[in-house]
Structures are given as C-alpha cells and as structure tokens.
Design goal:
By secondary structure, the chain is α/β, with parallel strands linked by helices. It contains twelve helices and 13 strands. The protein has helices at residues 24-36, 53-62, 93-98, 141-151, 158-171, 180-193, 197-201, 210-221, 242-251, 275-281, 285-293, 318-332; strands at 13-17, 42-47, 67-68, 77-81, 102-107, 132-134, 224-228, 231-237, 256-263, 266-273, 299-303, 307-313, 341-343. It has a seven-stranded mixed sheet with strand order 11-12-10-9-8-7-13. A hairpin with a 2-residue loop joins strand 7 (224-228) and strand 8 (231-237). It is globular. The model is unreliable at 113-122 (pLDDT under 50).
Length: 344
Amino acid sequence: MPLKSLAPLFKKRVLLLTHSGCDVDSLGSAAAIHFSLKGKSTTAIGVPEHINTSAKALAQKLEIPYEINPSLDGYDAVVCLDFNELGMLGPLREGFLAFSGEKFLVDHHEEKGVKNGNAGEKETALAPEKNSLVHTKAVSTTEIVYGLLKASKIKPPKKALAAIACGIITDSSSFLIADHETFAIMSEVMRNAAMPYREIASLFRLDPDLSQKVAQLKSARRCRIFRAGDSIVALADVSAFEADAASTLVRIGADVAFCGDADGGRTRVSARANSNWVAKTRFDLTKHVFGKLGEFFPGSGGGHAGAAAFNGKGKDIWPVLLKCAELANEFLCSEKQGELKEYK
C-alpha cells in the first residue's frame, strides 16, 4: 500500500530532501511539510549541490531554511521530494545509500528505469512502496503534498499554502498544462491562504539582473540551429542561466532548445520546448532525450516533457549538446529517418 498520510513522520527527526538544482516545486514541497509539521516533528530541508534562482527567491521571501549538501547523520527519516533517481541526489548519493533510517518518496515523475551513467549500474528504488506516493498525472509535487496534509488532518499555515501555490504555478507553466484538478486545488489553496495570485507569483519571480540579460542575449548570438524533420532544434553554450537561455531561444522561434555549460569538470544542460509543439508532436524531453543521455555520458537528468535538465561530468559541453539534438531527431524523424541538418 502506498503512503497515505504524513503520520509516519510524526515525532521523528526528518530530513526533507529536494533534488539537485532545486526548483520551486521541490523546495515548495519541502517547505510545505516543514512549516506544517512544526510541533509534530523536527524537520530540516536539504538541497544537493545547488538551488536555482527562482527557488532561492522563494526561500528568501518566505524565510525557508535550507542547507546545501547536509549530512544525513542524526535523522530518523529522509523524504525525497520531486525526484525518483539517485543521480538527482548529487554528492548526497552515497550518504543516502548508506542511510539506515526510514526512506520516503513523494513525486510526480515517471520512473524511467534507465542506467544512471555509473558503469552501467541500474537505478534502485529510493524508498519502499509503503513509504512512497507517486502520482504521475499530478502537475506538481506540491499538489500531492497538499493531499497528504489534508489526509493527515493538518491545517497548513499561510507560508505552507503559499509554497504549495508557487509549486503549482511553476510546474504547470502558469497553468498552460493544468487540468481541472489543478485549478480546483489552486483555488482551495488560494482561498485558505487569503492571498491574490499576483502576490503569490511575486514570491519566486525576480527581475533579471545584468548578467542574466547578457546570458540570454549571448544564447542567441552563440546559437547553432538544426532542422529535425519539420522542427527547429537550437543549441547554445552559455556560462550561466542555462534554463533562462533555453527559454529565450524558444520564445524567439525554436521548437526545442538545449543550453549548457562545462565548468570544473561538471556539465549542465537545461532544455525547454514550446508547449504547443510538445502537445502536437508528443515529444518528451525527459523520455526521449535526458532519459537516454546517461547511456552516453556520465550523469543523470530528468524533469518534464517541456522542461528538463541534465547534470554530468566532462570538460566539453558540445558533444553533450549535439547528442541531445541527435536524440531529439531520432524521435522526431523516427518514421522518415530524416537526417539532422544544421543551418549555417
């Protein structure tokens, strides 16, 4: 039987783990549990490797405490939120595998069952079935957390409700991929939080600074453009703000964009795809690209159909970016066997 409430966490020392490159949905899920279990459990939030700019803004504005790369020692339980792959734990992977306490999982991604880039090693389940709750049809993990809080008969405080709402907004791409269930939950959360939409959305949004603007403009200047069947694939090597750069390339015409950087022996790729194009082609960044990329390069990736990322090891980002384009082309031209063509 899957996890039905948060009662198993009561009266325990609990570490709430986000995924590497923590986003708003992952942090919002952890924050909602952290604020709601006050007085019932001792909780802390751990973030592997780094946190993205939107999640950092949310943490600052809602005063969400978190620690980068915390030790797992001293906890009775660990809860994985918004991910189901060992590779998304970054440097905490070995500590997690050695952890002897209880392990829990709350997520909305499909299990890919692929190699994780470590000498052909297979992924292992992050938590036993009785301690897991995975709803692949949920738009966000914060929606699932809200359901667990209700099932636990816990009334979330205002900060927890705000964090849940932010996770729903970001992972639904401001409701572009929402269904009636998402709208129903969001309406209930906003009513209970007594916060207007504009106020909630401002919690994770920042005006781009100079370096972010430059990164977005450089992505256009450095962009390599490919044709895959009837679709346009854009690639760019940028030094920072990979996700923002990819979004910029999609806004100016690409159907799907991959932007990456190699620094200090680590590689990072963020990808974005046009939502209408995704619906039309049934293309899925996680399934068709990042779920396979670990077979060619050491690392792990995941996300959603229209927004995903890959973290790996290497000194040159271009082989990784070009393989992303090849994998996209394999799906887009599977029937036509079309050749990936670059526009010069």
